[in-house]
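Review box. Two proteins, two foldings.
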Amino acid sequence: MRQFSRHSSSGRILLAIGLSALVLGASGCTRVRTHQGYSIDKLLVDSVQPGIDNRASVEGTLGRPSFISQFGEQDWYYVSREMRALAFSNPKPVEQTVLRVRFDPAGNVAAVDRMGLDQVAHISPMGDKTPTLGRNRSLFDEIFGNIGAVGAGGMGGAGGGSNTGGGPNGS
């Protein structure tokens, strides 16, 4: 019979724990790819023809749109986006397709347009403050600015006016 020592079994356990930690650590650095929105099938999109199809046939072929234009039902939009992120970083768009189906007033397809990621506007906020109109007050002005204003007239307090009107105490 073969006997195992305590040292060899504990070594195997430590090796298994070490390998598990290595695998879990490496999996945190993998790229995550996600798809958002409509899954565009090129064959189905190419089958929609201006002058031939109408709203009902487009809905039957492509399905309901991602959204419809706000000013009348002239345009239908199908939005598809591929995103990529590394571990816990913010996801970034890698590919985007916006399919716009335009209809004429009779409900027939007038045109089918595609727009890509190059049409996306990149907005960069200006600094870390939002410009506002009004007074420019510091933190101390906000905290201590109302000292002495308690009961002042016009500030919602009981302000020192006399009651000389025609009320029960005023005559």
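Next protein.
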Amino acid sequence: MPTSTASARYEGLGKPGKGSISTASGVLHDQPYGFGTRFEGKPGTNPEELIAAAHAACFTMATSFALAKAGHADGTLDTTAKVTLEADGDGFKVTRSALALKANVPGITESDLARIADEAKANCPISRLLNCEVTLERTLES
């Protein structure tokens, strides 16, 4: 099975420190992160944003493959994931990943979409990785 690699570097310690994140694929190269990007809305990314991107992508792909397996040949899936970080004692904890799916799949019923999407939510690898509440809101568009 494939493996994926990423790296992070942090220069300086604590709040004034500044970090960068890179991926082996080059999609991210020295992308800045730190206290400001995580808690103050400054330009750059943060771990929760990267988890949200991974979860949205994984769930959407799992749903796409499940829809194809169920006999659907065309459609568009748009997913957002909102990852919540909350204080936990002296630290922080990811407490929730809220998925919101907008699906346009010709010929599918709302109940079939619900069944397929709920199964994809429960079984996509990133959902299974997360140790938090995972919710799903579904909208069927035509």
